[in-house]
Amino acid sequence: xxxxxxxxxxxxxxxxxVACDESGSDGENLVGGNTDVFAHAGVRLPVGVAEAAVREVxxxxxxxxxxxxxxxxxxxxxxxxxxxxxxxxxxLAGQARVQLTQKAxxxxxxxxxxxxxxxxxxxxxxxxxxxxxxxxxxxxxFLGAANRLLRVRHDGEPxxxxxxxxxxxxxxxxxxxxxxxxxxxxxxxxxxARAQAYRDRLLDGPPLVPVLDPLLPAIxxxxxxxxxxxxxxxxxxxxxxxxxxxxxxWIVVTARRHGAALTGLRLVAARDDARVQLADFLAGxxxxxxxxxxxxxxxxxxxxxxxxFVAAGSVWGDEGSWARLGGLPxxxxxxxxxxxx
Length: 341
Description:
The chain is about 50% helix and about 10% strand.
């Protein structure tokens, strides 16, 4: 037996295998897209156990589909199968976690963080004022403008993204809101130079890690979460076009910088690995349950079943739905990505 003198771990300790998949990806379009929640799930199970669980799902649902997805389990007629999968005595209990990202909050967090030195707290203040304080129209305009300010692509909108964003900030100021939020907006109104500098940097080429992408930081947080205590971890992930060699290298380096003993990340086709299929199930199920809670029509029983799987480091701004989903997110939960990518 040998030991790593730097951190006290056994040098020959076998890495913990965690299989991953996501649900809710809309690229850089985080507001006004098809989904308002992004979910990334990690599952640690022996391959044989995972294969048995997938077979059980198929035997219970009996769909002719070659590849099962979360949608199969979310159908009302298969409610019992869904409850079995998430149950405290089910196959995933204690063996899976899911990182949730409220997309609108991620946009505000990244935009305000780009422009203000105290961006984390300032973003929470503005977001929690939100639609209730400023009204539906001004708030939707602000979210859309913040999204367009940050995204790499500019599709020739009539108004340049920097000018559009500061017009939306002024609209919020005119609408009025809580004193703390108005103070943040006043400071935002004086940050044109930072916003323009960010847009100018994009002219040199797209960043390796776009600030609006929720997948890469979610993978990092997954690695950090499973590597608590210094346990070496290897991730097995469903193939994604975004996961290029350079970005995988970024994930490994960033995860290690945040304390994870991440030994590598391997890409597979979900249909070829039952563990990834289970991660796909959990990500899709969690995204739907969380979105329902966010929009005020959650299912209390399903939310209760999901709670033990929800990672504390999730990126979430809506206090009411988060109280039902799991608790309070860690401060700067999305901070593994630099503002400039």
